[in-house]
Specification:
The complex is a heterodimer of chains A (about 325) and B (about 280). Chain A is an all-alpha fold. Chain A contains 15 helices and 2 strands. In chain A, β1 and β2 form a beta hairpin. Chain A starts with a helix and ends in a 14-residue tail after the last helix. With about 280 residues, chain B is an all-alpha fold. Chain B is flat, with a radius of gyration of 24 Å. Classes of the chains: A mainly alpha (about 325), B mainly alpha (about 280).
């Protein structure tokens, strides 16, 4: 028994020695992540148990969490977050999918290629730039107001406060979701196209000969082939959506009032405008827990790049 | 038969029309920013929804003057940060897919688990960490995240791609007497060029887009482009709008050039990697 244990140990040692290049090549990444990703993550958790400002730092136990559960700004901001996140998530998955299918159905390959390049163009404008352009389009005297009036949807002298700049919050959530219309620009169409291209043309031809309509083909062949892409958008949409406060930061400032406050923006305000870092970190912990729960079960079914099957050569 | 053909033809025309209409809607805001870059303040007021002549090129000059320092900062961050990130991430991806070593799965999941940690959790502690290291107001505070946390997302693509490189290639290299490092440098890296290009472009775009972290950790003189734009042109009605749009154009110009020269490359990388889940 002891002999076997010994040989096990020797074998492990030999395996480690043989694989030394593996450790050397992952070392810069792992060490960097330990210091600049893992350490801040852990200290974020620790911070949530402290009353921490630029001058004070004292342990307060779960007080921050108790306070947060009664904080109406925070509780309301959760609802606001879902009201923005869920429609945006659905749109960001469905709109590019429809566009990818439309382009996929174009018979002229050159034309289809050109369309795909065109859908990418919005990535050349930094996010801040498109935000600021949209702020302009959605201003009280902006393009959208002109269009709505042109078609006679509202009275000529109606005031449409899209972004709540005048203090009316009735349209602001709609406007935030509307930003980016028709929501097809960027890399998503291309990522779907990559998936569609993997469907062999024989399968599509066979479906056509069997008399399957295009709709039938999309639901029975294309969609099952695209589950990977859809999962990818879903996971990153959730992770991104839970912490996104770009619109609040660049356009609404959380207003009018607290109408567009989301937890992420509240965290930012608490930490960097009100110097209440410990309490703010508590929101970070809650968002982390939510992200973890919502995405962990999806990761469970994932096998990134077929890693589990990779044996290695060296 | 003839009638069926005509019907298909008509369907195609309708399809193309729908796509073109959607693309026009999608591109209109950008086009509007483009033509407004070349107007005077006065013509902007009355004609902002459509292009007019003459083009006022002077706007570009005034815009450039007010933001060139932000552009330089951005180029420094991207120029130092991204090559380092590509090296660190591709080395690790190679090790994870082509080298056998005990604990590999553990380390791999240790890296990938970070994808579930939202940056918002680390925003405050990272601020405190960089401040305590004396990196507040240093561009290093933007470069280090590229060398560390940004690698995680990049590896998502890199690992998939390197896993798809046939093992036989490396077995041959090994028999030829090449070491692990040589196989990495002379076989794996050149073959991964398309995906490395894609990752590089994605990261350049994200350096260009970043504004919250730079505005937290840096002083105004060190701001990168998006942070600087918000600083210079955030008060909508006080600024000269055409110059503001010109600044958008100037700030996007490096990305536009990159797009013109690399879009084929980028598209190939993005479509070849596939997302395997």
């Amino acid at each position: 028994m002891t002999v076997r244990k010994k040989t096990d140990k020797v074998a492990l040692w030999q395996a480690i020695k043989r694989g030394r290049w593996g450790y050397i090549m992952i070392a810069p990444l792992i060490l960097g992540l330990l210091v600049f990703s893992y350490y801040p993550s852990v200290s974020g958790l620790v911070l949530s148990f402290f009353n921490k400002t630029s001058t004070v730092s004292e342990f307060v136990g779960v007080e921050n969490f108790v306070k947060l559960m009664k904080d109406e700004i925070f509780l309301d901001s959760i609802g606001t977050m879902f009201k923005i996140m869920i429609p945006k998530l659905l749109i960001s998955i469905i709109a590019p999918l429809i566009m990818a299918e439309l382009i996929f159905a174009v018979k002229n390959d050159k034309l289809a290629g050109a369309f795909r390049v065109l859908t990418l163009i919005p990535i050349v404008a930094p996010g801040v730039v498109s935000m600021l352009i949209w702020r302009n389009l959605l201003s009280v005297d902006g393009l959208l107001t002109d269009i709505v009036k042109l078609f006679g949807f509202v009275e000529k002298d109606a005031v449409l406060d899209w972004l709540g700049a005048l203090g009316d919050d009735s349209l602001v959530l709609f406007s935030i979701i509307f930003i980016g219309f028709p929501w097809v620009g960027g890399t998503s169409v291309l990522i779907y196209t990559a998936g569609l291209n993997e469907i062999s043309s024989e399968v599509i031809e066979a479906a056509r000969l069997d008399g399957a309509s295009t709709m039938r083909r999309i639901f029975s062949i294309d969609l099952p082939m695209l589950t990977g892409q859809i999962k990818y958008f879903l996971i990153f949409g959730i992770i991104g959506g839970l912490q996104d406060y770009g619109v609040q930061y660049t356009i609404t400032d959380g207003g009018p009032g607290y109408a567009t406050y989301v937890p992420g923006y509240y965290l930012y305000k608490l930490a960097f405008a009100q110097d209440n870092m410990g309490y703010a970190a508590t929101i970070g912990v809650i968002l982390f827990a939510a992200t973890f729960v919502l995405s962990a079960f999806m990761f469970k079914f994932m096998d990134i790049g077929g890693m589990k099957k990779q044996q290695g050569v060296f | 038969m003839e009638q069926r053909k005509r019907k298909v033809h008509f369907a195609q025309i309708l399809l193309v029309a729908v796509i073109v209409f959607t693309l026009v809607l999608m591109l209109y805001p950008l086009a509007m920013a483009l033509w407004n870059s070349f107007k005077t303040d006065l013509t902007y007021e009355s004609t902002r929804w459509f292009p007019t002549l003459p083009l006022r090129w002077k706007n570009l000059v005034s815009a450039f003057d007010s933001i060139y320092k932000f552009l330089i900062n951005t180029l420094i961050v991207a120029g130092v940060g991204i090559p380092g990130m590509l090296l660190i991430a591709s080395m690790a991806s190679f090790a994870f897919t082509k080298i056998r070593f005990p604990g590999k799965t553990f380390f791999f999941y240790m890296v990938m688990a970070l994808m579930m940690v939202p940056t918002i959790l680390t925003l405050i502690p990272a601020f405190l960490l960089y401040k305590s290291m004396g990196l507040q107001n240093s561009l290093m505070s933007l470069i280090i995240p590229l060398w560390t946390s940004a690698c995680v997302g990049s590896m998502f693509l890199l690992v998939s791609f390197m896993a798809s490189l046939p093992n036989e290639l490396f077995e041959a290299a090994q028999i030829d007497g090449g070491g692990v490092l040589k196989s990495f440098w002379y076989v794996a890296l050149p073959l991964s060029a398309p995906i490395l290009g894609t990752v590089a472009i994605m990261q350049i775009v994200s350096v260009w887009n970043d504004y919250i972290w730079p505005r937290i950790i840096l002083d105004e003189t060190k701001f990168t482009i998006s942070a600087g734009l918000l600083l210079t042109f955030s008060a909508e009605y006080t600024a000269n709008m055409p110059v503001m749009f010109a600044a958008y154009l100037v700030s996007s110009s490096p990305l536009i050039l990159l797009f013109i020269f690399a879009n084929k490359f980028y598209i190939r990388g993005l479509t070849s990697a596939g997302i395997k889940m």
